[in-house]
Design brief:
Number of helices of chain A: 22
Largest interface: A-B, 40 and 40 residues
CATH class of the domain at 2-202 in chain A: Alpha Beta
Oligomer: homodimer
Strand order of the largest sheet of chain A: 2-1-6-3-4-5
Structural class of chain A: alpha+beta
């Protein structure tokens, strides 16, 4: 394993051995560690002193099921905090097979430039990429596969990242070559854009396996773990059939589906945008409801969503996306929402941030609530870089300021996703306290609050929520370091045998002797590092709070977010 | 004296006696105290929980020379800090004569509304003002004087405040009825707009004097003080002749006139935009170079600047404005800059923020450096509320984010004004550490650094700068509480007899027994309150820093800003 350091000022590419204390790290654990070690927390996120670190997880590239997650770490231009954003797709496995522990991109060109990084078994080269100027991710992928081969993995920026808009994502191609998987949250695409990089093409050539200390032991643990994943009703049945959109009806029933910019917990047209409706629609149009975003994924929560003519429209069409453009904006047309998902993938912006932002443009009366054509047009403006497009592309907090409205659901300037923190209080604790800015994936308390996974904690009461969020945030920080998809958390939470099998896989690959306690310690250490970075960047507990309007009562349960600041402040104390 | 509390939700107007511990406060001292006492530091600046406090100074309305400053305090939507922004014009004297210690505006209408406050000897009423929708300050003034009488003082918002753009100012009419005096910095106009108030009309009727404990003693101290002001070369000669624009040539000579977005310390066309050129131009066109913004001002730094046809164009045309649209944007046409000053006054935005922001739009290549027509057009767009106008109207940091550029001269998101902190290091200390965000008036170290007033401290060396800024920040906080124009600081700094005369005036009016030590204590107490508010709002010492690019060397002296964070952190320790 090696670390590659790429300086975009002088265009140098150097290789380093992995430091001893980085050896046991991967994914988020490694990106957060390198950013903490090397980046001044007070630097401008788009300036010379920020860095962007790309790291596969500890198990990426192995036979472990659903182990294709890639971590990107940086100081976020959206939140100003440390950021780890991870994506599926085919990049992590390719990088791991090529022996990359991490790639560190630093400094930036003196003037605006467009380059691409070409990664092959021969090494890494930096090439001019002016011919990709202001092209969307779909076209970029087509051009680069034409140029570098059909099997090339492409990580790329759409127009948004090139313009350094703070909701810009980094797209990663899926198994079909579509740019549907994204490091979405926190504007990592803007940082890559500031470094003058439009795309990274990865061709592992004939290298198709990673090294194992004990291959047989790995196979044994991996098979046992895969069975647990497939035996769980959520990861084995719900996700493969309906994708994450299965949550639309569930959250609506729970009164936790934020509607009309968090004015209601239920959406009258939830059925029209539900996972069940999506499933029927996909089947009717000869799409595919059960699609893996990377080889070896056994949960296959992705899908191929075709348009009315049966032509491919989009994939990786998630619950949070459907919520953001749907219930949040009072839009009930699933095809329109699918078009918006595709536009976000193409332009390269986070769908959660974009959908919440469109709702804020409605709040500010720039377009009417529910105006699906207006919403689609606004997204197209982002791709054009018009002034209104630049407003929308900079996210919800920015758009709220542009239109002078204060009802903006953000924490640390990152949009609050698809679960109302008043009726799913555990997730509210996560939004407020994760070092990442509002992020459901950082500690997905929806499990015990709504899904009955990992026990059951009344989502409407404050009792137990802080502890629930704490435990999940710790476990997630560790899981985000393995390269395993977060959805393996479902079997882990319900099956005490699952987490030990992850330890067994790590031990079999790396000749280590870790167990569950070491995994927990790893999660805690990562969170401590991240909190320390944020503290030095100027964040205080006053930033670990939800917006004031969550003191308003939410129908149908008439609940407020009543967990106090003092209670929130204990969440990540350990 | 009384305090009036106006609730804009239920439209109540109530009067309160002045609390004992508010009696000795006025201006900034009182606004910062009330905001500290009554506003949650974590509230959204445009939400229901922010308040806006209007307070004349302790000496406003008296015979004291140049005592017409009005303070407006709030939590700033631009910086997120506590904010006091003060203006000249005729409002402070009228309010003081009507017996107002302060007016506190709280809560906000449920939906967007436009009202005006009518203040007369009979009391305060709230009236509908829909007929003023999206009108500029010049037209608003004309309409309201037509309606309420020619001598009415008008405080108003242009289009910017109505749209709650965060560089929005509150205009105050001068002695000609022109809206040339502004609470400019920090977006106080956006807060007033969020409260649903477009204008405040003040008619003191026949009340033309305030009460004095000892009128004769007041007259004596006041005359002595006035003589000191007139005897000082800056306040007695420089300002009345050339206005503050006298500084263009001085700062250019000192290598401290930031040019082309802080890339140079000298502007090749400085002479074209100098105070001397302005003076000649005004005289040639039968304007007036020596104009008082309020009755009783003896420094008369304002002017009437006519256009080429001899028609009134603008007034209150300041050095910082000329710098911002001039050297910073590489524009050398004084008439174009005067037009931009007028547009800012009319639309109701801070000229410093606006000029720096236009320069950032140039940095982001939205228009070309030096494009005066493009700059004028951008300001007009602010008045229209188009998307690009909303970007510009939200200031420099916002515009930098919109265009993905990190070279943005701001501290706490407020634009750095007209003195380069590398070659005038004392002012750099003030920018970094004042609780207000970058603000030259908060501790005007240019005095000893460049003007040789109050001693002389080498502006290129770090020695003595922290102490200089500290002393000036303390004195300024106190002066901002008196209602006296800040420019009385020139005689105060050079004449030990001046500050005692201010104490004598206060004592003669209020039957108190304060001296210079109490004035110093007052300044320190105000700064402590303000810092505490900011701390609770989430500010840390990491926010008391200049942008990274001030580590670049500045020509012609090839100096960097080399005062360390640790040194800066001692500035307001007392």
């Amino acid at each position: 394993m090696k670390i590659c350091r790429i300086n975009m000022r002088n265009k140098s590419v150097t290789f380093e051995d992995v430091k001893a204390d980085y050896l046991a790290l991967g994914g988020r654990g490694l990106t957060s560690r390198i950013i903490s070690d090397e980046v001044d927390p007070t630097c401008h996120p788009l300036g010379r002193n920020n860095k962007l670190v790309i790291a596969p997880g500890l198990l990426s590239g192995t036979m472990a099921p659903s182990s294709g997650r890639l971590s990107v770490g940086t100081k976020s231009p959206l939140t100003g905090t440390i950021k780890e954003s991870n994506a599926g797709g085919t990049a992590a496995q390719s990088l791991a097979k090529l022996g990359y522990k991490a790639i560190i991109i630093e400094d930036k060109p003196a003037e605006h430039e467009l380059n691409l990084l070409k990664i092959t078994p021969e090494g890494i080269t930096i090439e001019d990429a002016d011919y990709l100027t202001m092209k969307g991710n779909y076209e970029v992928g087509d051009i680069l596969r034409e140029k570098f081969g059909a099997k090339t993995t492409v990580m790329s920026l759409g127009q948004a990242g090139e313009m350094r808009l703070t909701s810009a994502s980094i797209a990663v191609t899926d198994t079909e070559g579509h740019p549907t998987r994204h490091c979405g949250r926190g504007g990592t695409g803007a940082v890559l854009g500031s470094k003058g990089i439009k795309a990274i093409v990865i061709d592992p050539g004939k290298i198709n396996e990673v090294n194992y200390h004990d291959r047989n032991a790995f196979i044994k643990a991996s098979r046992s773990f895969a069975k647990m994943v497939l035996d769980h009703p959520v990861s084995g049945q719900g996700l493969p059939t309906y994708g994450t959109a299965v949550l639309v009806n569930i959250l609506n029933e729970a009164g936790g589906l934020p509607t009309d910019n968090f004015r209601d917990g239920r959406f009258e047209f939830a059925e029209s945008i539900s996972g069940e409706t999506m499933y029927e629609t996909i089947n009717k149009r000869n799409g595919n409801p059960t699609h893996a975003c990377h080889p070896g994924c056994i949960m296959k929560c992705s899908q191929i969503y075709n348009d009315k003519n049966g032509e491919y429209l989009t994939g990786g069409f998630e619950y949070e996306t459907i919520w953001a453009f749907g219930a949040h904006c009072h839009i009930k047309d699933l095809d329109a929402i699918a078009m918006m998902d595709r536009l976000c993938d193409d332009i390269g912006i986070d769908t959660i941030e974009a959908g919440v932002t469109i709702g804020i443009a409605m709040e500010g009366k720039y377009i009417e609530l529910g105006d699906k054509d207006g919403a689609i047009q606004l997204l197209k403006e982002v791709g054009k870089g018009s002034p209104i497009g630049r407003i929308i592309g900079n996210g919800a907090a920015f758009t709220g300021q542009a239109f002078g409205t204060e009802r903006v659901p953000v924490v640390k300037k990152q949009a609050i996703p698809a679960y109302d923190p008043r009726s799913v209080k555990g997730i509210g604790v996560t939004y407020a306290t994760t070092p990442m800015g509002a992020d459901h994936t950082a500690g997905y308390s929806v499990t015990a609050n709504v899904l009955g996974v990992g026990g059951s904690i009344d989502p409407l009461k404050k009792e137990g929520q802080v502890e629930l969020s704490r435990n999940l945030q710790v476990a997630t920080a560790a899981l985000d370091s393995t390269g395993l998809c977060l959805f393996v958390a479902f079997p882990i939470l319900d099956n005490d045998g699952a987490l030990p099998e992850i330890a067994h896989m790590i031990n079999a690959k790396y000749n280590t002797e870790i167990g569950v306690p070491e995994i927990v310690s790893l999660g805690q250490e990562i969170l401590k590092l991240e909190k320390e970075f944020n503290k030095n960047a100027g964040f205080t507990k006053s930033h670990d709070r939800l917006p004031e309007f969550f003191k308003e009562k939410l129908a149908p349960h008439n609940v407020t977010f009543d967990i106090t600041g003092e209670e929130l402040d204990t969440t990540l104390e350990f």
